[in-house]
Amino acid sequence: PAHLLFPTAGKEESMEEGSRSYGAVYQRYPNRVAFFVSENSACATFCTHCQRTKSLDSSSFIGELDIQKGLFYIAHNVNIDEVLVTGGDALRIGKKRLGYILGELSRIAHVRSIRIATRVPVVMPMGVTEELLTVIDQSVNKYNHGPEKMVYFMTHINHYQEITEDLHAAIQRIRSHGYSVRNQTVLLKHVNAYYKTLATTFRRMFWAGVEPYYLLQCHKEKGLMHFITPIQIGKIFIKHLQGWISGIYKPMFAANVEGGGGKVLLMPSGHDTVHSGLTIEDNIYDGSAKVMTWDGRVIYDYEALGRASRKEYANAVKIMDQFIGRKDCFLPCLNIFDKSGEYIETTNRGWSLIPMLSNISKAKLLEYEVKEDETPITNPALIEEKLNTLFYDSEYVPGKTTSRPFTDKSE
Description:
globular; 17% strand; TIM Barrel; alpha/beta
């Protein structure tokens, strides 16, 4: 595991949630807060890429005083119009406790929307019961005397193999109660950092009733270095998804910047904004990037990769080569720094790792039916003669069959 091979790579408690909290509430934006209603140990599953993997003990305990302080702060700060009910997992607490919290939020007039964060539909779909949804129905506007509060769910699907029939059924139950469902996917090396995997995941997700909302760069938390993919790789994937899948299937690519920086969009613009003559591919393995946060800060050397010394890197590669039994299998991408903290290089910048995505290869990966030039049809006018021949031999011809009436004869 990376946290054993590179013990100093990454940042401890990168989100610094404890330093921006009051009671069970964490804030980094002007108008919304995260309300931690359960301990991290209450999750339906423990994600190995989570920034909170090191807080699965009593230190994350959420007590009555924390909840009440959180409710007080939300009521006190009239700027807060959205509350993210999370944990842990918002659906892994008792129904009575969940109903109480949602009911108390319904009293606060300036809170207009409530987001419920959960992985239960993905990893424990049988937990999404009619009884649970009824508790939510009866609580979110229980004491509300103003406009209806809008409620939606945010879940976490990383791979299309998680999109099961049971998940689909759970999402249908949620949607039948009038709630929409959005998703945050984390870009994970060796898991979903492949063009076809992402495209398949986003399409199937939407077909199951979940809107792909964010594709997030993996956190720089200690122990997660082996999951981190260079930012430019993610930008290339998003660039090549444009036009090849429906726009509503395509999430926003973003990084969650530590220290309260919030989410920073990393989407490719589609044009050369500074007339540099460079493409995304030209800067494929930059060790850092310039990002602008929501509050106007500019971070000139935002590092998305883990840090290590040359010695740490060499020792880790040696250990993994011996473990695997052959060389050149363990190729982590990270930034090498010297003892004084100066950047030296980014490892494994090899151009062979760049996704080579031509129109023909994308058509094959997406399993589109293609014409003679191995690309899908995008202009039916070019094959009008062929289409007419097929059309007039089909059951779609008016009057040829009674099974497809064009108009209602009763009109």
